[in-house]
């Protein structure tokens, strides 16, 4: 049971493309020369592992992570960030903004805002600029494929973007890296991994779910290695799901 | 706005450990001696051994220590204010990463539906891996506390859904020693919660 991977996702040596890109971009923003802007945007269709890449970046860089919701008002944005920071929120929006920027500036920790599309749709994305201007903290914005286009309307944010990072579909290298991460107890043969990769259509989340299922089946069958023959005709997870919203 | 009386604008939510109380007082005072700090933080310095933390902060370069004269109390100055979170330092001044439980608590909020190996992968650091057994037992505790709902589907591994976000600090599994008398059916003496919190902080 002690198969905890010892050296997963070392900065700069991340096995997963999206994790490496996200860590690299956010690291770049954290260590940027002072004349460069500090906002990084990660965008792409859902399921590619943007949020999980952000999760790893959060753990490794001690970032503050918030996920925007469609119901968010200006006040809710600040309250949510302060909750993540563990700070007692002040009464007014103005004071809360001061609290957020003060803590970001003092701690030097980056801020990650996921599901930014909601903020753009409500027009409250300017808040991000206020926070950025007030704290100069590195900020990672995450959103769907069209986020760069919709951000283009907000020139004042658009100008402050250091790097645009498109999330990648998982390739076979990623699938192998995921196999190493998830299947510590049952070896998964290459032919089965090919099959999983093809069925999952490059969506990292589905590959993970399938790999865990294969390992589970291997354990139940008492096998140390699973290949196509052992897996047989069992269905793989391809989209419609017992596991929902796992992002 | 009078700077002297203004309430600290950044205050941590929830129960504070003694180290966090000390750090909050340091941020307010900026310059202090140990007795002044104890008074401001309302910490009984005969009950709590403060010097480990202060020495650690000095060695980490966060505090500066000056001895104005022989036998006079040392004066400490806050050099690097790192925000509201109390810096986690060992006595030798090296920095301690967030505890495994804190990292898991944060990661599960992002993942929302996750398996134990998801959690291990997303919360591990290159130099501080999390054992699957530790992650599993933390999930089981949180499920008992109704923070997580176990999901099970046939042919799939155990997954959890995150339900209750109570705040930034991770719920902790504490060890509290108590003296229990079966004759009376009463706890006659025992650790305070505060001391259990401080012990777990120092040990992590």
Describe this structure in words.
The complex is a heterodimer of chains A (247) and B (204). By secondary structure, chain A is an alpha/beta fold. Helix content of chain A is 50%, strand content 11%. Chain A contains twelve helices and seven strands. Chain A has helices at residues 17-30, 50-61, 74-85, 93-107, 116-122, 126-135, 147-151, 155-158, 172-182, 190-200, 204-221, 228-231; strands spanning 39-43, 64-67, 111-114, 139-143, 161-166, 187-188, 225-226. In chain A, the strands form two sheets. Chain A has a five-stranded parallel beta sheet. The radius of gyration of chain A is 20 Å and the shape is elongated. The model of chain A is unreliable at 1-14 (pLDDT under 50). Residues 1-5 of chain B have low confidence and may be disordered. The longest helix of chain B has 13 residues, at 132-144. Chain B is built from seven helices and eight strands; from the N terminus they run αβααββαβααββββα. Chain B has helices spanning 18-29, 34-41, 51-59, 100-111, 116-123, 132-144, 193-203; strands spanning 31-32, 63-66, 75-78, 113-115, 148-151, 159-162, 178-181, 186-190. With 204 residues, chain B is of the alpha+beta class.
Feature tags:
heterodimer, A: 247 residues, alpha/beta, five-stranded parallel β-sheet, two-stranded parallel sheet, 7 strands, B: 204 residues, alpha+beta, three-stranded antiparallel β-sheet, 7 helices, 8 strands, 36% helix, disordered N terminus
């Amino acid at each position: 049971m002690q198969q905890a991977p010892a050296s997963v996702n070392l900065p700069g040596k991340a096995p997963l493309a999206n994790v490496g890109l996200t860590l690299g971009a956010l690291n770049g923003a954290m260590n940027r020369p002072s004349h460069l802007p500090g906002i990084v945007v990660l965008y792409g269709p859902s399921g590619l592992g943007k949020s999980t890449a952000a999760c790893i970046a959060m753990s490794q860089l001690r970032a503050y992570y918030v996920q925007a919701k469609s119901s968010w008002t200006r006040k809710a944005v600040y309250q949510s960030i302060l909750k993540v920071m563990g700070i007692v929120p002040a009464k007014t929006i103005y004071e809360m903004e001061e609290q957020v920027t003060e803590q970001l500036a003092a701690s030097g920790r980056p801020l990650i805002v996921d599901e930014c599309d909601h903020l753009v749709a409500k027009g409250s994305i300017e808040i991000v600029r206020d926070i950025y201007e007030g704290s100069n903290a590195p900020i990672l914005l995450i959103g769907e494929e069209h986020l760069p286009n919709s951000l283009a309307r907000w020139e004042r944010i658009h100008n402050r973007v250091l790097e645009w990072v498109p999330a990648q579909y998982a390739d076979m290298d990623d699938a192998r890296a995921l196999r190493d991460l998830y299947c510590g107890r049952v070896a998964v043969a290459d032919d089965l991994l090919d099959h999983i990769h093809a069925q999952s259509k490059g969506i990292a989340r589905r590959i993970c779910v399938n790999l865990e299922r294969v390992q589970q089946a291997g354990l139940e069958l008492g096998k140390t290695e699973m290949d196509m023959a052992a897996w047989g005709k069992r269905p793989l997870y391809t989209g419609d799901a017992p596991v929902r919203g796992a992002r | 706005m009078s700077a002297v009386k203004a309430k600290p604008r950044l205050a941590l939510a929830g129960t504070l450990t003694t180290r966090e109380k000390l750090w909050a007082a340091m941020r307010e005072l900026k310059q202090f001696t140990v007795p002044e700090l104890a008074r401001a933080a309302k910490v009984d310095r005969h009950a709590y051994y403060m010097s480990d933390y202060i020495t650690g902060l000095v060695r980490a370069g966060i505090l500066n220590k000056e001895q104005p004269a022989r036998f006079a109390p040392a004066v400490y100055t806050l050099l690097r204010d790192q925000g509201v979170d109390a810096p986690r330092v060992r006595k030798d001044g090296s920095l301690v990463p967030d505890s495994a439980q804190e990292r898991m608590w944060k990661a599960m909020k992002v993942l929302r539906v996750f398996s134990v190996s998801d959690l291990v992968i997303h919360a591990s650091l290159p130099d501080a891996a999390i054992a699957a057994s530790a992650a599993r037992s933390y999930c089981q505790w949180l499920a008992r506390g109704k923070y997580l709902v176990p999901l099970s589907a046939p042919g799939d591994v155990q997954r959890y859904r995150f339900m209750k976000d109570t705040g930034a600090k991770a719920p902790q599994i504490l060890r509290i020693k108590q003296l229990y008398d079966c004759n009376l059916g009463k706890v006659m003496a025992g650790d305070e919660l505060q001391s259990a919190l401080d012990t777990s902080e120092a040990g992590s």
